[in-house]
Design a protein that fits this description.
Shape of chain A: globular
CATH architecture of the largest domain in chain A: Orthogonal Bundle
Oligomer: heterodimer
Number of strands of chain A: 0
Helix content of chain B: 25-40%
Strand content of chain A: under 5%
Order of helices and strands of chain A: HHHHHHHHHHHHH
Shape of chain B: globular
Structural class of chain A: mainly alpha
CATH topology of the largest domain in chain A: MetI-like fold
Largest interface: A-B, 60 and 64 residues
Number of domains of chain A: 2
Strand content of chain B: 15-25%
Radius of gyration of chain A: 24 Å
Largest sheet of chain B: 11 strands, mixed
Helix content of chain A: over 70%
Largest sheet of chain A: none
Number of helices of chain A: 13
Mean pLDDT of chain B: 84
Number of helices of chain B: 16
Chain lengths: ~325, ~550
């Protein structure tokens, strides 16, 4: 197992390195660089001025050389400064991370109960009313992009209940009530999207488990139906769900850009997006690598959890 | 099963009905009666900019409206955010608004767009080229240091230094030397007469910074100015908190304790926040402003902007090399229709100088190609050899520009011209713009009360932003004369001829100027909307609790 772990971690490093190179080069190949974005269309500087500015930001060297410079400083722990704020990029990313984590957790807190119970209810009475509705919900939820669900959420909640989304972000430690109010809309939007997939997965997994012989044995032993489901079926049925949730959680940690845009949440996703718009190169590099790291790590964790939960699985 | 299907269909229908019947905005039926306008500012007259001889200008003091109250934090929502903290290197409007509040300039523009003293108390001009400024005494930077003539000299030198890369260099370039005979006197000698100088030094990119902070610290990180507000806290992408400067040199100002700028990219979300009272003030577009007018608790203050929109041609690309083709398109466009469609009627047709610059702008009746005349247009095209029309592409940035281009596309079909619209990302747009890599583009330019600022850099063949490679010797000559003539009457003749020539030669088709809409709670008072979109008067805003 430990050999497996070491191998995975090595692969993680290789992946991150390759990604860093890819991102570095591609963002510099896009037309328009930092200076252009700062000046916009309000002026064109004289040539010496532009040259001076470019040299100041190190943009006049060839790309490969710039990469080596950047890589070198990363090895010394310096990820660079944001052109916009002059602050270290890593601290900017880390400042936003708690919001992204909180949103991901609250989303899970909504998606899991809804999705799993729907899935179980579906599986227990296949083709019943609940099943048909749940399947419709799953289909719609998975087909619709999460930002469409987000807008529908705002519409339904504001028209029917007259609730409007609160904007901005207050940390939980400062004002838990306001914080949860702000999280509510985006979490519901993302949660519904996610619940759709979870419900589907739970349903098919449950159906398969219910067909197994040991379930028949448990029933014939005289166990009550509840006990059969909870004690014997659920654990096994949830195995594939864990994998799914793990991957989705990793994606949520990466920040969902469009949701953050709609609800004005200063999360990691938006940071990366704006960095690209403004060609804040150091910030683009760090935020994308960070998102990738979260994703790959969550992937690893969910694979390990898989092995932990299912005794049939052994990694070598 | 059938029972289930029926129930299902019923449910789906119900959900779709619910989703369908939301509040539908009805912009057309809203009556334009503004019942709760706090203050309507009409910027009409531009006073003469050139102060000829030795008049001492009196310090302007703000006139407070009925007993402003002190205190409170104003929540102001913005769709975009400050890009950088150094006042000399960031020219975009979103950054300028920060500098307007935390830094000060030597002069400023009054609500009627006339030049007022700000950091100085008065000035004298000799021979049209030697300006002697007398600074206010006791002006303190946010760190307690006093502002002296050294800081002024340092600031302008910094702007003029090519290594700084300051866009303001092009309008301070006219400075020959700066002398500081004593702590409170600055003598600036220009290379030649320049009537726009006093307006130009009011620009936020010419803010006065602390020599000490700039040399010992870093202006990209340390914000130490003399403005009405100090930078309190900045959480990028989230909010920026500006706090009252208790040592501000204008007694009694500002009234507010703090202003909090919140970044909310979506206007609909901002409007929702205004309705719930979470947000106090925000600038919105015409459509959202009309929705706001329908609300009983919100007020809308408006003013015509100097920013103008246009369709510009790359004069080095066929067929735009031929001025007849350009003029033909100018005849074929229906400008009012673009205003009605895009600005919902809230705007005015403009020539090269916006109509609100009453002292300079020619009446539109002077321009023959401002009356839509398809026959003339077709005749001109035929003369140029394009009787069957032609096709070209127009580059746009953002949704409003695209919508405008679509309206034009439709109009130009009437003379057989096919337009292809290319909407591109900001970085690509800037890159193309800079390298003149376009057939045409549909955009907007910021305005200024100085006709020289509005015209020179864009239309002079050596102009800083003449990306469409327009070259007209007569225009060049008139621009140069206009820039250096101090006498108003003579200057006006140059600019009159210039406007006619520009419209005739049509390097661009000038379209419209829009209104700016500031939507706010009725409890927010002292709201001033400036045509040049400056927010320096935010220091006079107060909350009526």
């Amino acid at each position: 197992m430990s050999r497996y772990l070491i191998r995975r971690l090595l692969w993680l490093l290789v992946t991150l390195w390759a990604l860093s190179f890819l991102v570095f080069v591609s963002v510099r190949l896009i037309p328009g660089d930092t200076i252009d974005l700062i000046l916009g269309t309000s002026s064109i500087l004289a040539e010496e001025q532009e040259a001076a500015l470019r040299a100041y930001y190190g943009l006049d060297k060839p790309i490969l050389q710039q990469y080596v410079v950047w890589f070198n400083s990363v090895l010394h722990g310096d990820m660079g400064l944001s052109i916009r704020t002059g602050r270290p990029v890593m601290s900017e990313v880390l400042e936003r991370f708690p919001l992204t984590v909180e949103l991901a957790v609250v989303t899970l807190a909504i998606a899991l109960p809804v999705g799993i119970s729907l899935g179980i209810a579906s599986a227990l009475k296949p083709n019943g009313l609940v099943d048909v509705l749940a399947r419709l919900f799953s289909l719609a939820g998975m087909a619709l992009p999460n930002f469409v669900v987000a807008i529908l959420t705002i519409l339904i909640l504001s028209v029917v209940f007259h609730w409007f989304p609160a904007s901005g972000f207050v940390p939980f430690s400062e004002d838990p009530v306001q914080n949860l109010r702000q999280m509510f809309f985006p979490a519901v939007a993302l949660g519904m999207s996610m619940a759709a997939g979870v419900a589907r997965m739970t349903r098919s997994s449950m159906l398969e488990v219910l067909r197994q012989d040991y379930v028949r044995t448990a029933r014939s032993k005289g166990l009550k139906e509840d006990a059969v489901i909870v004690r014997h079926c659920l654990k096994n049925a949830l195995i594939p769900v864990i994998t799914l949730v793990g991957i989705r959680f990793g994606r949520l940690l990466g920040g969902t850009v469009i949701i953050e845009q709609i609800y004005a949440l200063p999360g990691v996703g938006r940071l990366a997006l704006y960095a690209i718009y403004q060609r804040d190169y150091a910030m683009v590099q760090s935020s994308i690598l960070f998102i990738a790291l979260c994703y790959v790590l969550m992937n690893l964790i969910s694979d390990l959890a898989y092995a932990f939960v299912d005794p049939r699985i052994r990694y070598t | 099963m059938r029972k289930h299907v029926v129930l299902l269909v019923a449910l789906v229908t119900l959900v779709s009905l619910l989703a369908g019947c939301g509040p539908t905005p009805t912009p057309e039926t809203i009556t334009k009666v503004e019942t709760k306008i706090v203050k309507e500012v009409e910027t009409k007259i531009v006073k003469e900019v050139e102060t000829k001889v030795v008049e001492k200008v009196v310090t302007a003091t703000p006139e407070p409206t009925p007993a402003p109250e002190r205190g409170g934090t104003l929540i102001w929502a913005m769709v975009d955010e400050v890009l950088g903290l150094d006042p000399h290197t960031n020219p975009l409007h979103r950054s300028l608004r920060l500098y307007e509040l935390v830094y000060s300039t030597m002069t400023r523009l009054g609500t009627d767009l006339s030049v007022q003293p700000e950091l100085c108390e008065s000035w004298e001009i000799e021979n049209d080229t030697v300006y002697t400024f007398h600074l206010r005494q006791g002006v303190k930077f946010h760190n307690g240091d006093e502002l002296t003539s050294e800081d002024v000299k340092f600031s302008y030198d910094r702007v003029l230094d090519p290594e700084t890369g300051s866009p303001a260099k092009s309008f301070l370039d006219v400075i020959d030397k700066i002398e500081t005979p004593d702590e409170y006197t600055v003598v600036i000698t220009l290379t030649g007469p320049n009537p726009a100088f006093l307006i130009n030094i009011a620009h936020p990119n010419a803010s006065i910074v602390s020599k000490r902070v700039a040399t010992e610290g870093d202006l990209a990180r340390d914000v130490v100015g003399t403005g009405a507000f100090k930078l309190g806290e900045w959480v990028p992408d989230s909010y920026m908190r500006l706090e009252r400067n208790p040592d501000f040199y204008l007694e009694g100002l500002p009234y507010l304790d703090a202003i909090e700028w919140r970044v909310i990219p979506d206007q609909a979300t901002i409007l929702a926040g205004l309705r719930t009272g979470e947000i106090d003030v925000a600038d919105l577009d015409a459509k959202n402003a009309q929705l706001a007018r329908a609300s009983k608790t919100l007020a809308v203050t408006t003013a015509p902007r100097l920013t103008y929109t246009f369709l510009a041609f790359n004069c080095e690309r066929e067929p735009f090399t031929d001025p007849r083709v350009r003029r033909a398109l100018s005849y074929a466009v229906d400008r009012q229709a673009t205003i009605d469609a895009i600005l919902l009627g809230e705007g005015e047709i403009t020539g090269p100088l916006p109509p609100s610059l009453e002292q300079w702008a020619l009446p539109l009746s002077e321009y023959p190609n401002y009356t839509r005349d398809l026959d003339q247009a077709k005749a001109l095209l035929a003369e140029a050899g394009y009787a069957d029309g032609f096709g070209f592409s127009v580059m746009v940035l953002g949704d409003e520009a695209r919508a405008r281009a679509q309206v034009l596309q439709d109009q130009l079909k009437d003379i057989g011209v096919e337009v292809e619209i290319e909407q591109v990302e900001r970085g690509l747009y800037i890159d193309n713009w800079k390298n003149s890599n376009f057939d045409s583009f549909c955009g907007g330019n910021s305005g200024s009360p100085s006709p020289d600022y509005m015209l020179y850099r864009t239309f002079h063949s050596e102009g800083g932003t003449n990306v469409f490679k327009f070259k007209n010797d007569k225009v060049d000559d008139l621009l140069e004369k206009g820039r250096t003539t101090v006498d108003y009457a003579t200057r006006k003749t140059y600019y009159d001829e210039l406007q006619r020539e520009l419209v005739q030669d049509a390097p661009m088709v000038w379209l419209s100027v829009a209104n700016q809409f500031r939507v706010h709670q009725a409890s927010v008072k002292g709201v001033t909307v400036m045509s040049d979109t400056s927010i320096v008067y935010a220091r006079e805003m107060w909350l009526d609790k």
